[in-house]
Amino acid sequence: MPEPWILLTVAAAFLQNIRSALQKDLKTRLSNTGATYVRFAFGAPFALVYLLVLTVGLDHSLPKPGGTFFFYGALGGIGQVLATATLLHAFSFRNFAVSTAYRKTEPLQAAAFSVAILGESVGELAGIGILVSVVGVLLLTVSRQDVTRRPLRNIFLDRGAGLGMLSAALFALAGVSYRAASLSLLSDGGAFLRAGFTLSCVLVFQAVIMTLFLALREPGQLRRVGRAWRPSLWVGICGAAASVGWFTAMTLQNVAYVTALGQVELLFAMAASWIFFRERSNRLELAGMAVMLVGIVILILES
C-alpha cells in the first residue's frame, strides 16, 4: 500500500484543481484580491471544524506552539496569500492550464528552500525524478504552441511566465515554512493533529489580515464576496479539504517530494479538458505527460 503522504498528496492535488477552477470563475465577479480572499475566509471555518474533530472527537489535547511556530506560520501564511494573488493575476496572461504549468517549477524551488530553512536535502535519485517531472511539465506548457524560436521566447519570457515563476517561489517558501511550523509543535496526536492545528491557525490569520486589507483598500469587494457566497462556499470547502492533504503530507515528508508528486494536478486539469471540452492531445502533450509520470515514478521509488 502506498505511503500516507502519497495518498494525501494525490487527493490534495485533485481537490486543489477543483478549487482553482472555481476560484478562477469567481474572477468574473471579484477582483484578484477578492477571489484570493474567498479561499481563506471560507476555508477557515471548515479547518476549525476539522481541528475540533481531531481534538474533541479523538480525545487529543491541542499542541503547544512556540515562537518558531508563530514565525514560520506567519511567514508561510503571508507567502501563500501573495502566491495565490500572483497566480490568479497570471491567469490574465495565460489560460488556466498554462498558468498552472508555470507554477509547477515549485518542486525545484522547494528543494532549495528546504535546504536553506530546514537543512533537508533530497536524494540523488529523487533529485533526478523532480528534474524529469519538471521537464515533462515544460513540455506540456509548450505542447499547444507553435514551437519556433520567437514563440518559445514569448512563452517563457513574457509577463505571464514571470508571474507564474514568482508564484511558484512564494508557494515553495510557504510550503517549507508550514513544515517548519508543524514540526516545531509538541503534540500527542501525531502528524495529523500538528498539521490540522497549523492549518487552522494559518487560515484564521490569513482571513483576518485579508479582511482588514479589503476593508481598507477594496471595501466594495467584501460586499461582492457576500453576494457570491454560494460559489465561495464551495471554494472554501474544496480549499480546506485540499489544504488538509497538503499540510499533513508536508508534515510527513520533505516539501520538495510532496510538491513534485503534486504535479499530478496538471494531469487532472488536462483530463478535465478532455472530458468536458473534448480536446484531443497532440504528440508533444502526450510526451510531456509521459516524461512527467516517469519523473514521479522515480521520485516515489526513491522515497
Short structural summary:
This protein is mainly α and 303 residues long.
Note down, in words, how this protein is organized.
The chain has 303 residues and is mostly helical. The protein has one domain (4-302). Helices cover 82% and strands 0% of the residues. It has 15 helices and no strands. Helix 1 (4-26) packs antiparallel against helix 12 (229-252). The longest helix is centred in the C-terminal third of the chain and has 28 residues, at 190-217. The radius of gyration is 19 Å and the shape is globular. The mean pLDDT is 84.
Beta-strand residue fraction = under 5%
Distance between the termini: 14 Å
The overall strand count is 0
What's the pLDDT, averaged over the residues?
84
**Helical residue percent?**
over 70%
Low-confidence blocks of residues: none
Biggest sheet descriptor: none
Structural shape:
globular
Succession of helices and strands? HHHHHHHHHHHHHHH
Treating each run of at least 4 consecutive H or I residues as one helix, how many helices? 15
Supply the number of structural domains: 1
C-alpha Rg (nearest Å): 19 Å
Structure classification: mainly alpha
